[in-house]
Amino acid sequence: MIDNKKAVILLSVLMTLTACGGGSSKKAIINDTSEVPRTNDIKAPIITLQGDNPMTLEFGTTYADPGASAEDDIDDSVTVSIENNINAFALGEYEVIYTAKDKAGNASEATRIVKVIDTTPPEITLNGEQQLELAQWRDFQDPGVEAKDAADGIVSVSTSGNLDNTKVGVYELTYKATDKSGNTATATRTVKVLENPSLVDVLADQNLLLCAKEAGYEYVLDVVELSCNNKRVQSTQGINQLVELRVLDLSRNEIQETNLTGNPLLTKVDFSDNLLTELDIKNNLELSSLIADNNKLSAIDVTHNEKLVGIALRYNRLTEIDVSANQQLVLLMLQGNALTQLDVGNNTKLQFLNAGRNQLTTINLNSNPDLKTVFVADNQLTSLDLTNLSQLSSLNAGDNQLANIDVSQNEELDLLALKNNQLTSINVANNIALGLLDLRSNQLTSLDVSSNTTLYKLQIEGNQITELDLSNNTGITTLTLDENVVCTGEKCAISTKI
Asked: What is the C-alpha separation between 495 and 498, in angstroms, rounded?
């Protein structure tokens, strides 16, 4: 075959030769260099797929096409178009269509098969801890599991294992989940069966044992709450083995000693009205309430019990107590001890304070703005600053040595008892909520209660008051006065004159 360029040259030579030998004197020179039209292009491009065909795509992942190329025998380059309807979140088989067209309009097509598959097993999540403890003889309540699969959603779970709650030991539970694609996942949980002796073999005191049985308990690890008030219990031997014990009430018994070192979960303890001389609670870090009124305690350490909210140790023999670590304290009851000092500076949440009948000469309440009730009667206080106690509703500071007291900032006061002090005057004009006012045995020469219209009980005998106006105090039901007091107002008629 002669290509176009050679044909043009040959034709030009032939034309020249003809002109030279045609017998004519006239020269005819043809210089035509126009291109001969190309042969028709009827062959489509060839598409070559890159990567696998068919190929797989994991469920839920993004499809990244490996690409394709096309070659044409005439055109230098041909563009390949790609179309697909792949849904990576639906298992199945999809087609990716590749098309290429040359400049002559010849088109070709290729197909890649993409299979969206699930090869990922379900994910098993344990409810609760992976390692559990079970008291011997107690029924096991499996916290359960949940299995989720990316393709199938929630998948059912089967459980297998040979747990025996009658035998002490370690057991393994196996959880198995299989999705619709046959992918399987497993998870395990360990259950330790703990020795759980009978209470008969642990508690020495028969009254304590009987109380526990009456509460429905048979085994040591079953006891969570034990209330044995006034049961004539003399010994708590064995109680430290009740490791699950949370609440213990042994008030009004005959207990002289106890051991709580084995009860770390205790939150509430009541040993009031016993014969205890010591009480060790250093290991009871969860303790929030401690009651041990009316014992013989000369000392107690509460510095390790930072969760304590309430302490009641009335009528013991305490000479000191450190509550600086008990910053959650709301209630502190220490009446009837032998305390010479008490620091409540760190107890900023304190609402109820009873430190009466001690030997306190001073107490600082400036860091306790939430105080509502203060009982500090029968001490040796010479001063008492109530300036920061705007929520104070009840104050009993009788039987001290107070020469003056300012209650003008305590507008919520309902009860004010200041008998047997050395007061020469007192201003209660701002205490309009006052219901009970006891000012017996002071050195008052006058008293204005005209603003205290809610008064129902007034006691002022043992002072130097000679006149009293009760015209505004129509709610009074109890009134005690000295005989020489001239009283004005309708309620004077109910007075008891001493």
From this structure: 9
Contact 130, 190 (CB under 8 A): yes
Hey, which bits of 60-206 come out as E strands?
A: 68-71, 80-84, 92-101, 107-117, 123-126, 131-135, 145-149, 153-155, 157-160, 169-178, 184-194
What distance in Å separates the CA atoms of residue 433 and residue 255, rounded to the nearest whole number? 45
End-to-end CA distance of the chain: 150
| pLDDT score of 455 | 98
- Does 107 score more than 80 pLDDT? yes
| Long-range pairs for 253-257: beta carbons < 8 A, 24 or more residues apart | 253/228, 253/229
Specify the pairing of strand 153-155 against strand 145-149. Answer: antiparallel
Confidence label for 75 from pLDDT (cuts 50, 70 and 90): confident
Using the Cα atoms of residue 449, residue 450, residue 452 and residue 455 in order, give the sign of their dihedral: positive
Calculated CA dihedral for residues 161, 162, 164, 169, nearest 10 degrees: -80
* pLDDT at residue 39, as a whole number: 58
Across residues 136-161, what is the average pLDDT? 92
Rg (CA), the chain: 49
d(CA 426, CA 439): 9
Reference 284, options 305, 299, 312; nearest CA is 305
In the chain, where the domains are located? 1-39, 46-117, 123-194
* Fold category of 46-117 in CATH: Immunoglobulin-like (2.60.40)
| CA–CA separation, 59 and 63 (whole Å) | 10
Please state, in angstroms and rounded to a whole number, the distance separating the CA atoms of residues 34 and 17.
Answer: 20
User: Own/partner pairs for 255-262, CB < 8 Å, 24+ apart?
Assistant: 260/284
Q: Strands 331-333 and 352-354: what pairing? A: parallel
H/E segment holding residue 15: helix 4-20
CATH class of the domain whose range is 123-194: mainly beta
Whether the Cβ atoms of residue 495 and residue 481 lie closer than 8 Å to each other: yes
**Cα distance between residue 383 and residue 102, in whole Å:** 107
Q: What percent of the residues of the chain are helix, what percent strand, and what percent coil, each to the nearest 5?
A: 10, 25, 65
Ranges of beta strands (E only) in 161-276 are: 169-178, 184-194, 225-227, 247-249, 268-270
